Please model this.
Amino acid sequence: MNKNLDQPGNYVILFNKPYGVLCQFTGPKPNLAEYIPVKGFYPAGRLDKDSEGLVVLTDNGQLQAQITDPEYKMKKTYWAQVEGKINATALNFIKTGVLIKGKKTAPAQVKKIHIPLSPREPDIRRRENIPTSWLEIVIKEGRNRQIRKMTAAAGFPTLRLYRTGVGPWNIFSTPTGSFQKCRVNYPLYPRLPKKLRRSPD
Model:
């Protein structure tokens, strides 16, 4: 038997967060405590209340830093339902970078996709005679409400946001409102001083 199997950092929890759930274990409800009866694990990169999908929880500070610190360039993948019929100009605008509070976002991977999800409850707000489009967006940052701000800057407000992947993990085998404990098979890089830190390729 591996005596280190349950040491901190050997597992992550992959939670498929429903709409309306807060990414915290205390305070207003509904929150994570109602879904995850496991002690000592905390979100590594939150989703806001209105967003859905993958939340990775860890009990290891070093891994949490690798997931959340943009210097490590860990990919986060999202599906965004936006208002309007997206066009190539807007896709390129989002892809090349958007100014948020005076700082340009890093280049992103963006493409239009077919409808990947069934309608949620409650449904998104809809305006009569205005279509919606679905995008897949991959970023290596994690600023506050970044995806929503990027699509809004392009003229296509996000109506629904669903995170499907963080680094090597995805949500496809975890039903909404459920979680799974997953063995970590990912290298931990040293936590270097800020000035010396470099991101793995």
